[in-house]
Amino acid sequence: MKPGHPCDLPSAVTPAPCTIVIFGASGDLTSRKLIPALFSLHLQGKLPEPVTIVGCARSPLSDNQFREQLFARLPPGTKGLEKWPDFAASLHYQPVTYDRQSFLKLAAYLGELDHAQGTGGNRIFDLAVPPGLYPVIAELLGESGLSRETGLAEGWARIIVEKPFGRDLPTAIALNAVLHEHFREEQIFRIDHYLAKETVQNTLIFRFANSIFEPLWNRHHIEYVGIIAAEELGLGSRAGYYEDAGVLRDMFQNHLMQLLVLTAMEPPARFDSQSVQDEKTKVMRSLRDFGAKDGSRLHLGQYGPGHINGLPVPGYRDEPGVRQGSTTPTFALMELFIDNWRWQDVPFYLVSGKRLPRKQTRIIIQFREVPHRLFRDVLGDTIGANRLTIETFPEEAIRLSFQTKNPGTSICLRAMDMDFVYHEHYQSATLDAYARVLLDCMAGDHMLFWRQDGIEQSWAFLTPVLELCEECRFREQHLQFYPAGTWGPEQTRPIVSRMAAE
Ligand SMILES: NC(=O)c1ccc[n+]([C@@H]2O[C@H](COP(=O)([O-])OP(=O)(O)OC[C@H]3O[C@@H](n4cnc5c(N)ncnc54)[C@H](OP(=O)(O)O)[C@@H]3O)[C@@H](O)[C@H]2O)c1
């Protein structure tokens, strides 16, 4: 696609030269996601020219040590390694100690780099640090003048905030308040990389650029909506974070909520960030309250020992760093309702869990059964209802199931799928989700990021749920155990297996 093509998004046009400053540059997110994403943009010729990437952390590293460390940590199978030296030339390192003095030093250093490289004072600050440091860094950027913009076309300052954005409503409001002391809303980019997946973006196109689906997209035709993000992996080395967060904070407040609003929102007036965000926020305002003690719509689970791909794996409580007798949920199924004309009384089942049989992320639109069972006499009651599946993993695909007649003299029905699989139809290189959000931030496009009101609405809905399920008694009564490698606790397994079925 040539720049300037009518269907180019802002990020399709190479953004202006800039400096990308990554705090926490010695950590996991930087080496596993951010740098590989930036390197892939380099390989595709999508990075601005010039671009400077400055890693900041407390570890004492030279530019060369930083480059070598990142190269050594590139994910296995990274392509284009022969071009790494070109890319590495744009990588620099500046140690920081998260106090005023070191940020004044950083400001002077960035000024010198701007001058030497010609990056025009455009800067992105990416907070790849533990969340407790987000407000500290925002304050320090403000106090050292680094959040200030010149007001000219060049000289912008943007801040990228990783998840988790707060741990409940009060902390999210407090974080927004600190950010807003030093940055305008247009300067703030709250990441949810799920939104950058092609199929997720395609959900809006699918719904609003095809006239045949939207008339069916409501309570009259849809039995339920299922949204599942299943992980095969267990805790890994993330006990410090996960013991406190659990599955609701880790997956529901952000990723599943975004998939829910994209599925349920009304058509926006225009396809621009503001209009789309307005419609998303409306959905979150329409979520039915969970009710003070309504445990029946929430199922929590924790994996025990089991088998994944035939190999034995330990239970959650035996993972390194997990508290003895921990009641942190690693699985949840939540039944939600959206109180508006389109969705009244249609259940939305949100499911996520660790150590389920396979990694799978999909939205299921389960249509109602046919009203009149014309074939009942010959077939009994077994006519399956249509189902639309929007899948982001293992394949980026959209599938519509429908009934057909088996060839032959008898009336036997068979459910078949109409499939659209992204990689079978589009050969051009697709952008990894992190590469896409970084590029959008460089281009100043907020479409794939959370806006302040959206994130606060999401927490406003979820905070009472979290309070409920953090009560010891609630957890003791409701936490169900499931063997690793099964579709969650026994009670909810039938519905989860149906949602996950091929
Ligand atoms: N990793 C992921 O896949 C992922 C995915 C989504 C979101 N996130 C979010 O992204 C952020 C970074 O994640 P991460 O996994 O990269 O974290 P990490 O590896 O634990 O930490 C990143 C870096 O932060 C610095 N740091 C750690 N504790 C610190 C402290 N108390 N004070 C000052 N600096 C400290 C360390 O560098 P120095 O010791 O050298 O200063 C460390 O290398 C987190 O907020 C996480 O929730 C991560």
Protein architecture, described:
- With 502 residues, this protein is of the alpha/beta class.
- Helices cover 35% and strands 21% of the residues.
- The chain contains 15 helices and 18 strands.
- The protein has helices at 28-43, 63-72, 84-88, 100-117, 134-143, 169-182, 198-208, 239-264, 273-285, 376-379, 422-425, 433-443, 452-470, 472-478, 493-500, and strands at 18-23, 51-57, 91-95, 123-127, 157-161, 188-191, 222-230, 298-304, 306-308, 311-313, 331-336, 348-353, 360-367, 387-393, 397-405, 413-421, 449-450, 479-483.
- It has a 9-stranded mixed beta sheet, with helices on both faces. The protein has a 7-stranded mixed beta sheet with strand order 3-2-1-4-5-6-17, sandwiched between helices. It has a two-stranded antiparallel ribbon with strand order 9-10.
- α1 packs across α12, α8 packs across α9 and α8 (239-264) packs across α13 (452-470).
- The longest helix is centred in the middle third of the chain and has 26 residues, at 239-264.
- The two termini are 34 Å apart.
- NADP nicotinamide-adenine-dinucleotide phosphate (NAP) is lined by residues 24, 26-30, 32-33, 57-59, 98, 128-131, 133, 162-164.
- Overall shape: globular
Name the ligand types. Answer: NADP nicotinamide-adenine-dinucleotide phosphate
Question: What composes the largest sheet?
Answer: 9 strands, mixed
Strand order of the largest sheet: 16-15-14-13-7-12-11-8-18
Mean pLDDT: 90
Distance between the termini: 34 Å
Count of DSSP-assigned helices: 15
Number of strands: 18
Please state the CA-atom Rg, rounded to the nearest Å.
Answer: 24 Å
- What are the low-pLDDT stretches, counting only 5+ consecutive residues below 50? none
Percentage of residues in strands: 15-25%
- Strand pairing plus helix content: what structural class? alpha/beta
Examine the coordinates and then state which fold CATH places here, giving the name of the CATH topology of the largest domain: Dihydrodipicolinate Reductase, domain 2
Number of domains: 2
**What is the helical fraction, as a range of percent?**
25-40%
Q: What top-tier CATH class of the largest domain fits best? A: Alpha Beta
